Amino acid sequence: MFELLFPKQHLNNIFELDPQKLKELGIKGIIADMDNTLVPWNDRTVQPRLAGWLAGLKEKGFQLCIVSNNTADKGGELARQLDIPAFWYAVKPRRRAFRKALREMNLAAEEVAVVGDQIFTDVLGGNRMGLYTILVTPISDKEFFWTKLMRQLERLVLNYLKRHNMIH
Ligand SMILES: [Mg+2]
Q1: In tens digits, what is the pLDDT along the chain, a chain of 168 residues?
Q2: 105 C-alpha vs ligand 1 centroid, how far in Å?
Q3: What distance in Å separates the CA atoms of residue 164 and residue 31, rounded to the nearest whole number?
Q4: pTM of the predicted protein model
Q5: CA of 70 relative to ligand 1 center, distance in Å
Q6: For residue 116, how far is its CA from the centre of ligand 1 (angstroms)?
Q7: What contacts 124, CB < 8 A, 6 or more positions away?
Q8: Do 97 and 91 meet the contact criterion of CB atoms below 8 Å apart?
């Protein structure tokens, strides 16, 4: 049960994703969280580095999808600029939006990785769905009050994983 909180990889940011390694794992699609994973919380500016990185992943044959607990109001324009299908108000860790993303990409759960900055939404939801889960360090420390509270619980999980050499 506790294992559902464990990511398979822990990276500093999305630019550390290793496309070659993902291919070797049989990953063909990547579901990305938006806030504090692709862009800082409450900042929708599309940086050229991000756009270039995501375009590069597409060129390498990966399908991309955004699954966010935020609203289309807040993220729709960003998804349009990046030209990535998106599912809003996902209520992660619920699985419904992940299922929709899999259907959109026409891929099975074991062919898809999810990358996000929160253990109790992105990682827990992804693991429940059977996806390959990748945790990234949040881009900024600005976030919802509720998220800040959850970070304290996250720290317990992260410390446990570090003690057991499951992440670095
Ligand atoms: Mg996030």
Answers
A1: 689 999 999 999 999 999 999 999 999 999 999 999 999 988 889 999 999 999 999 999 999 999 999 999 999 999 999 999 999 999 999 999 999 999 999 999 999 999 999 999 999 999 999 999 999 999 988 888 888 888 988 999 999 998 988 876
A2: 21
A3: 27
A4: 0.93
A5: 9
A6: 6
A7: 4, 5, 92, 93
A8: yes
**CATH number attached to the domain at 2-163:** 3.40.50.1000
Domain locations along the chain: 2-163
How many whole angstroms from 21 Cα to the centroid of ligand 1? Answer: 23
Ligand 1 centroid from CA 138, angstroms: 7
Q: How far is the CA of 101 from the centre of ligand 1 (A)?
A: 17
Q: How far is the CA of 165 from the centre of ligand 1 (A)?
A: 24
Give the count of beta carbons closer than 10 Å to the beta carbon of residue 156.
Answer: 11
